[in-house]
Amino acid sequence: MTKTMEAPKTKQESRIKKYDTAWLKKLLHEMLLIRRFEEKCDLMYGLKKIGGFCHLYIGQEAVSTGCMAALDLKKDYVLTSYRDHAHALSCGMHPNVLMAELFGKITGCSKGKGGSMHLFDAKKNMLGGNGIVGSQIPVATGVAFKIKYNNEDGVVLCFFGDGAIHQGAFHESLNMAKLWNLPIIYICENNMYGMGTSVSRASSVCNLSIKSAAYGIPGKQVNGMDVLEVYEELKSSIKRAREDKTPSFLEMKTYRYKGHSKSDPEKYRTTEELNKFKQDDPIIALKALLVEANEFSEEEYQQMEDEIKLLCEESVKFAEESPEPPLEELYEDVFV
Predict the structure, then answer these.
(1) pTM for the full model?
(2) Domains annotated on the chain, with CATH
(3) 290: which of 71, 114, 284, 318 lies 20 to 30 Å off by Cα?
């Protein structure tokens, strides 16, 4: 019998049997790239080479990776919040242009004008991180309306945090999306804290997935620390959006291992809580899945680590050697 015909020997092997091993390794590579890139951002911010705001995604990598794996970015679109490094990388933006943007250099994706919160690449259908809480939700709804109006085949993923769900724009957008049956998936990345306020102190309902029921939109909670569960749920929602032109809402239960931003002292949670959630690290979980199924080795993982760390080092070198924007850039890309 060939390997593909053999019965799975372990629970983990049984779980990943239906997936291509190379594809699973690609998911692991992407999550690890996000983690190491952001750790490098953390270091560069500490060295004062990155200014302004900087919101890290460390711990939440399974969400952006699993979601984008289900997309076709030739025709689908992504909009997200200010915590956007991971989504940009998952959409295929190069670490060099992202790091250059964080450094405020002309070679950055927004010519150094946007910084951490405004990563953007229209050619890759990554329509931006957005700095104002919830501001991307009506914009994403408008993109979905554009798709329907032009009779296109795309769908829109709109990411936001649990804090944004209390913005009026969220409710107005979901109402219109259902009225017009728009091909959009609203994704709440519930990392348990809106800045420093826990969900239980900010919301009268802690199961955020039921909020879409008021607009006749199906909602579901998903384990956002499991990249394969994220992928499978997105596949179903994208199929519904593409074929039935029906919106949906997913609450990704996840957790960030760093503060809300670089200025956050993190006094609202305990070390014990943080360590508990680190036991569910999505990168370690997928690696363990592959190793236990005998599809991956520690040597392969170390090689992957080394390649990614080199890529991140090169992104810093590229950013440091890139020129500052010229003065005349002050008058470019403005309306008045």
Answers:
(1) 0.93
(2) 21-261+268-315 (3.40.50.970)
(3) 71
